[in-house]
Design a protein that fits this description.
- It is a single chain.
- The protein starts with a helix and ends in an 8-residue tail after the last strand.
- The protein contains 1 helix and 8 strands.
- The longest helix is centred in the N-terminal third of the chain and has 23 residues, at about 1-25.
- About 10% of the residues are buried.
- It has about 90 residues and is α+β, with helices and mostly antiparallel strands.
- It has one domain (about 1-90).
- A 3-stranded antiparallel sheet has the order 2-1-8, with no helix packed on it. A 3-stranded antiparallel sheet has the order 3-4-5, with no helix packed on it.
- It has one helix spanning about 1-25; strands spanning about 25-30, 35-40, 50-55, 60-65, 75, 80, 80-85, 85.
- Bound molecules: zinc ion (2 copies).
- One zinc ion binds next to loops.
C-alpha cells in the first residue's frame, strides 16, 4: 500500500515539475515529426523568450518568441514547413 502512495507522489511531483517548467520556458514542438526545441534565450539580456501571438495585417495569427524585457521578438521556430506549436498553454496533453 505504501509503495502505491510513493509511486503516486513521485508521479504528481514529476507532473508539477513539468507544469512549472513549461510555464517558465516556451517549448516548441512540431506536430508532424515530433521535433522539439526549448530554452530559447535573448542574446542581449539572456532572459528566456516567452511565447506569444501577433496578428498580421491579413488577420492571420503568427506565433512568436519574444523577450520579456522588450529587447525584441523572433518568429516562432519552423519545422517541416510549418510553425512549431508551443506547449506553454494549459492544454498540455500529458
Ligand atoms: Zn517536423
Ligand atoms: Zn532581452
Amino acid at each position: 500500500m505504501n509503495k502505491i502512495i510513493t509511486k503516486l507522489r513521485k508521479f504528481i511531483l514529476r507532473y508539477l515539475i513539468i507544469k512549472i517548467r513549461n510555464r517558465i520556458m516556451a517549448e516548441f514542438t512540431c506536430e508532424h515529426c515530433g521535433m522539439g526545441v526549448t530554452g530559447l534565450t535573448c542574446a542581449k539580456c539572456s532572459a528566456e523568450l516567452v511565447h506569444d501571438h501577433i496578428t498580421k495585417d491579413d488577420g492571420t495569427q503568427v506565433g512568436v518568441a519574444k523577450c520579456p524585457n522588450g529587447c525584441g521578438m523572433i518568429k516562432s521556430p519552423m519545422c517541416c514547413g510549418n510553425d512549431m506549436s508551443c506547449s506553454t498553454s494549459d492544454s498540455a496533453s500529458e
